[in-house]
Amino acid sequence: MLLDDLDKRILQQLQQDAALTNHALAALVHASPPTCLRRVNRLIDEGVIARQVAILAAEKIGPSLTAIVEITLDHQASERQTEFEQLVAHESAVQQCYRVSPGPDFVLVIQVADMPAYHALAHRLFATQSNIRNVRSFFSTLRSKFETRVDVP
C-alpha cells in the first residue's frame, strides 16, 4: 500500500494520541473530517493500523518486574520455532517475542508482578519444554525510554 502525505500525517498524529476525535485529527492534519475518517478506516482495513490501545504505566497499577529473556532452542527447524512461538503466544505476561539472529533464537519481553511470578512463568514455559537448550534472563532496574511510535518515512 502506498502512503501519501495525508496518510503519513494521520499516522503520525494517531501514534501520539489515538484517542483524538475525528474532528480534532482532521484539524491537525489539515483535512476535512469526512476525508480523514475515510482515510483512517482505509488504514485500518489495510492493516496499516494494527490496533488502537491504551498503554498503561504498569508501575502505577501494582508491583511490576520486567524481564528480557534470551531463549536458545536445541533444534531450530522452522516448525520447532513456530511451536515455541505458539507456546508463548498464549501467555499474557509475554508482551513481545522476537526471532533473532545471530545469537539466541528468541528474545522475549516479559512483564510480571515480582520474582516469584517470574519463577512460576519460567518453570511453566521454559523448564518443562524439552527443546529449550538455554534461558538467559535480564531484569530491568530502570526503564529510561519506552516508545511505541514507528517512523513514517
3D structure, described in words:
The protein is an alpha+beta fold and about 150 residues long. The chain has two domains: about 5-45, Orthogonal Bundle (Arc Repressor Mutant, subunit A), CATH 1.10.10; about 60-140, Alpha-Beta Plaits, CATH 3.30.70.920. It has six helices and four strands. Strands 2-3-1-4 form a four-stranded antiparallel sheet, covered by helices on one side. Strand 2 and strand 3 form a beta hairpin. It is elongated. The chain starts with a helix and ends in a 14-residue tail after the last strand. It comes from Undibacterium parvum. One of its GO terms (molecular function) is sequence-specific DNA binding. One of its GO terms (cellular component) is cytosol.
